[in-house]
Write a structure and sequence with these properties.
17 helices; ADP-ribosylglycohydrolase; mainly alpha; ADP-ribosylglycohydrolase fold; Ribosyl_crysJ1_sf; 0% strand
Length: 306
């Protein structure tokens, strides 16, 4: 891990978006697999090779990178929640192969009503809290941290963007906390201070979210859950940035846990990227990323807004 004072804000911002894309593309190959199956097929899966259940091209973005790009583009064009919704619907119109159930239902509602403020709460009411707390909004939350320096604006926009599809309080608060961690790291503070800042947010009062923010760094990776539950995904990312090892080693450890490996990789990769900067991401990964050029450009654009 590079000394924090040596990493520029530009490098951190680029690392944030490219970390999302790298974790996404690395994990896509082993999504839905278990650790034993991954070990039998790949040994230690550490390269972006594509394939997987959806037969991805090497470096192709899944919904994690696609929707992160959608949010980032909305900021670059001039933020409004309506513009975010427009970009979500434009993505939906391409017929994505891996759209999550909660997201699909919310965007169908949005397409019918044109109101991004009502689509997520409507779905939450229909499917219930037991099914509504997936990680589908956390995976796309990073652009807000790069675009907004003012804490109040940052928290409000993180919450409302989550609620377009994922209005459950656990999802909303996880996004607010995640964006806060990223913003504090972007400013050059250390991981301990970033986690303390997230815990101190008054709006983050859900006990599960707060417990995830206190995930112990000494937890064995075998005990880190990489399923689709938003609390587990937040905990995995918190665990990741507390590891005193290079970005590559930590991200590979998580992705080799399998299950929802692409989204876990994207969420943790984003925070690792803002912690360590884009220069910490292996060149052999960066060279494969289809979003590489656009994410570098968008990171610079969002940082200018910041």
């Amino acid at each position: 891990m590079t000394t924090a004072s040596m990493i520029s804000k530009t490098d951190r911002a680029r690392g944030a978006l490219l970390g999302v894309a790298a974790g996404d593309a690395l994990g896509a190959t082993v999504e839905f697999c278990g650790p034993a199956e991954i070990a039998a097929r790949y040994g230690r899966h550490a390269d972006i090779v594509g394939g997987g259940s959806f037969r991805w091209r090497p470096g192709q973005g899944t919904d994690d990178s696609d929707l992160t790009a959608a949010v980032a583009r909305a900021y670059a064009e001039g933020y409004s929640l309506g513009r975010v919704g427009e970009h979500f619907l434009a993505w939906r119109s391409t017929g994505p192969r891996d759209i999550g159930g909660t997201t699909a239902a919310a965007l169908a509602r949005l397409a019918n009503t044109g109101d991004p403020g009502r689509s997520g709460p409507f779905v939450l009411d229909r499917i219930g809290a037991a099914r509504a707390a997936g990680n589908g909004s956390l995976m796309r939350a990073m652009p807000t941290a790069l675009a907004r320096e003012d804490a109040g604006t940052r928290r409000r926009e993180a919450a409302e963007i989550s609620a377009v599809t994922h209005a459950d309080a656990r999802c909303v608060q996880a996004c607010v906390a995640y964006v806060e961690i990223a913003a504090v790291l972007l400013a050059g503070s250390n991981v301990v201070d970033a986690l303390d800042a997230a815990v101190a947010i008054p709006e983050v009062d859900n006990e599960e979210v707060r417990r995830a923010l206190r995930t112990a760094p000494q937890t064995p990776v075998e005990e880190i859950s990489t399923g689709g539950y938003v609390i587990d995904s937040l905990a995995a990312a918190v665990w990741a940035i507390q590891q005193p090892r290079p970005l590559e080693d930590v991200l590979v450890d998580l992705v080799n846990r399998g299950d929802d490996a692409d989204t876990t990789g994207a969420i943790a990769g984003g925070l690792l990227g803002v912690r360590d900067g884009a220069t910490a991401i292996p060149v052999r990964w960066l060279d494969r990323l289809e979003y590489h050029d656009e994410f570098r450009t968008l990171a610079d654009t969002l940082l200018a807004l910041h």
